[in-house]
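For the sake of transparency, this paper describes our internal protein records without simplification. An entry from our holdings is shown next, in its original layout:
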Amino acid sequence: MISIVIPTFNSISKMDMTLESLRAIPEKVPHEVIFVDDQSKDGTFDVLASECQSNENWKIYRLPENSGSAAKPRNYGLEVATGEFLFFLDSDDILIPEGLANSYAHAVKFDSDAVRNSLQVVAPDGTTRMSDRVPGWDKIKDSGSRLRAITKYQSLTCSFLMRRDVVMENNIRFMESRRIGEDITFSSEVLTKCQRLSYRDVPIRKYVKNDDEEGSVTQKLTSSNFRDFIEAWSDVEEILGTSGVSFIKEHGHAAMDYALRQFILFKTEELNREVFNVFSEFCNKHWNNISTFKFSRRLHELVLAARDADYEQFVDACKIRLVLAGHDLKFMNEILPELKKRYKVRIDKWTGHTTHDKAQSRELLEWTDYVWVEWLLGAAVWYSKNVTSRHRLVIRAHRSELTVDYGLDLQLSKVAKIISIAPHSMNDFSDRFDIPFEKFELIPNAFDVEGYKTEPDNAAERRFQIAMIGTVPALKGFHRAIELLAQLRERDERFQLNVYGKKHSEYVWVMNSESERKYYSMCDSRIAELGLEDSIHYQGWIDTKESLRNVGYALSLSDFEGMQVAPGEAFCAGGQGLFLPWRGVQACYPSEFIFESIEEMAEYIQDMQNDSTSYERAANYGREFMLERYDIKIVSNQVLDLLERIRA
């Protein structure tokens, strides 16, 4: 019989598939399932106790107090087990019944003491890959070479079929004082005591990588945890050394690579000097082997700092790094200072949608942990095809990217998240590029609300100033602003239209586009026809935080938008943003400022002219709306929370 031992702690919310897989074990495989609960607080014990009543070969035990790791529950489980074979399964892993049956039949037929298996890894997005495969196993005949092959190609976890007598007769137990690495020490002791080692290139379990908020032990690393890594490596080196196998030589690169990457991403503190010295001694002791390891440049910095006993350099190199890439980074202006407080940030400024310094981009990719790409354009495609498994790639999509095809070329499996700035845009991007909704995160543009000046030079004059920030391309609806101004000036000739940003004639691509050129020629003709030449002012680029305090209304008259920042800035500066009903605007801004037509908008502005109290009340409401929903503090926290979550 096989005793399947499963330690649990606050596990029940992620055990549905685990339990389902246990129920599917074929009747021809005699087994018992032993749950050992480590004082869960979420009802795990009660739910599993009920499950055990429905499955006569399932049993559950509870430790008297929480132990803090899987070691003690596993030790308890192997003590109460009655099977000829042991198999340890994590509570959030999924057993593959066919793999268990295959391994058990092989163990019985060939009298194996242990059967190792390949592993199926399931990523958070549902994609799978095979791991822990041992090539050329059938050609490896002697036990020493088999042990060396297992050490080289596998992770030495304790999830394998092992003869219980080997464990009990040699008094092999999990080290309960160690939170990390206790499993590889246990496995190495078991494997060195086995006379007959087997391997099946058939997965026996699915390892499910979760991106939940709580995370695992190895996603909250302290200096003590990092010491556990080092001491476990040293122990396994000594244990396997009795069989003529060097763990450091065969698997040291993979083990160190994993531990260093985990510590960079999930440390809860800087590595203290004492543990750093232990790591430094370890590196120097095994430098002959470590010097041959091909670490990424990112990790190589850490290893060299440890070898040279340079603590300050090691601590600095452990800081999480982020590259911000794209051709237009203006929408990052508010978020960037907050990111720099948490991460080391470098910029990869592209010269166009597809043009960049490739050598610089590759160098930055070697340097960084995170990549944030602004706009779903060429930079997003390039990074999606060049990041590795150690990187976390985030792409922020705005709106204009829907008109081009770059999204079709994304290597989506390499993208951790795509940020959409508005709900309707998220739907559009999903439909246009066939991107599943789980890839998206809804985070709006950020506004430094408190950073805007709000006191106008002349409060009464302000209400006669309307503005558009950017009138290119044609879909921005400049012609509507012209008509609005004409209607307002019929009532009061003091109304003025201020146009900020480049004039359409300054854009080469506009002048090269027949449709755009005709549109703006029509606008110019209409301005002349209405006699508005002296009441439309092209101001060029301005400091909106300073200048919008003298603007009464910023207009959003587009055919479509993602979110449109300009009217939001007007609210921040104590003015008002006014909108025509482009699709999705209701989800972005208050309905009080959305109008069905230019005529309704003109009527509203005229009413405000006659009631300064109502104007101020509406403006204050708009500013409070921005503070509560889009302020830099709120949006930055959403961004930082997202980056924290995708680390897993």
User: Anything to note?
Assistant: The chain has four domains: 2-211, 215-316, 321-446+636-645, 449-630. Residues 2-211 form a domain with the Spore Coat Polysaccharide Biosynthesis Protein SpsA; Chain A fold (CATH 3.90.550.10).
